[in-house]
Amino acid sequence: MRKFSARRGQALVMVTMSLVAMFGIIGLVVDLGWMRFTQRWAGTAADAAAIAAAQRGLDIVGDQEKISFACGSGVTCQGATGCSSTPTSNLTNACQFAAQHGFTDGGKGGRQSVTVTANNTSPPPTAAGVDSFYWVTVRAAENVPQLFSAVLGNTWGTSAAQSTAAVVEVIVPGSLYALDRENDAAPNGNGVGLFLQGNSTITAGSGAYIASAANGTGGNYVGEAGGGGTLSASAVWIREGGAVDNPGNFTPTPENGFSDGSSFRDPMRNKGQPPPPTLAQAPAVEVPGGTINGDCASPTVLNPGSYFAVDNVGGCKGAGCPTVATGDPVRITGCVIFSAGGGNFANYVFYGGANFDSPGTTATFDPGRYVFAGAEQNNPVFVQSNGVTLTDQTPLSGGASVPNTDAGEIFIFTNTNYPGLQLPAKVQNIASTLDFGVVDLQMGNNASSLINLHGLNPDSLALPPELRKFAPTVFWQDQQNSTIKYTADGNIDTTSCGPGYTLSNPCPNTDPDIEPDMFMQAHPNLHLYGVVYQPRGANLTIQGNGNLTSPMMLISGSVNLQGGPNVTLQNLNRNLRRKVVALVQ
Q1: How many CB atoms lie within 10 A of CB 36?
Q2: Peptide bond before residue 123 is cis, with ω within 30 degrees of 0
Q3: pLDDT digits 0-9 by tens, 228-237
Q4: What are the tens digits of pLDDT across the range 107-134?
Q5: Lower CB count within 10 Å: N or C terminus of the chain?
């Protein structure tokens, strides 16, 4: 009996010791779990805070070059600083978003801390190998009481997380962007972003993005391909419930149901518009009678300048007569070279429009910025006709366009109200008569017609820094020449016209003088190397029944093929890029 009682006492001691160990293990598991939960909570707060601060910095600066992200100029740089000491700036967003996720500097009775570090160095210290323009690192931490494992002396534990968000460049995918939405007026019906008439075909090697959500309600679809019209692409993406009328004419079958996002917005947003040259870079050049007759035996060199047609005043004849700007187009015939000499980047502005409409004309363009600033009502702002050659200094090879090694060209189609444009004194007197005009490239079936132009080259040291972010654009249509209103920084305007407007129902552009159309003819000798850009609310029409094959990206409100052209958009060797915010740590 005594032996049995002794055994019972020993068992009680052993069970008690086991319970202590078991509860200790349970306590450790509970504490570790709570620490892990708090750490994940801190990670969510740090992620949101870092992204918010970096995104606010990008919103302030816009899609600009590195120099624009200078510390203290739009964005704030600082060492690790608690939110309680962070000055009001884009970094304030980090503190606000951390608070929204439950972390404040000094919160929970002083147990929490939130620090923010930011700079424009590259790479960020926490993300080696990442090429960034600006970065923000947020560390969120909380001291967590140890409820059970405190018996081992662990009274407090710290749960912390750190995240870095950076402004980085990414490649803009796709070969074709139709930006119009279901409420936008287009030539073939509201919300029709892509229209393929007859036997028209278009091949978009890198894919097509169609932003409209028109689905047949009211008779309009985002893509309409009648007869033998077809689209072939690596993929076709359509926003939300948008649909095409004949899915069998699209290869592969378009995918819809995608929520609104960056893929369906203007790839040039936040960039503003390409700045024009100053009058010092393009001084006034009067063109008597509005015609320049080039010499084909020894091509006439046209120096950089702001060109405009003039007539003598009051019937005066001979040298020394006073002149007045007429607003007539500048007509260029014969053989000319636009050149600044010495490999310099050239700058030109044409008032009244530029017409290359005489067969046999050859115009050679050195790398440069060419602005076509308005034409008289109902006149095109730029014309190329049958039998005309427009080329640059990069030769064709095997009948195809090859990449340029020089700085390239950008043609800007606008009017006299283009942001930053400085008008010569005589042009100021007729500026109100020069409106937007269409762009008209009509090559016919003439084998001697040729266009060989290369967009801006970001790798060239000769390219002005302010144009680098627009590379590899070759044609740019003013965002003011659209049925949709844009803001100065290149975003869709949804606020200036009052409440109730949205991205899908934005502020309309009420300018009665807009001419948001560009026409080009499918022709085997049409080589545009780069991005052809028009804003949302503008229209690109490709006509004729020829073949057009070129390394080209098309961005427009709506793209329309008429007359049976065959268009192949080859991939670019130099990609269009834009800046975004991404978590890099």
Answers
A1: 11
A2: yes
A3: 899 999 999 9
A4: 989 999 999 999 999 999 999 989 999 9
A5: N
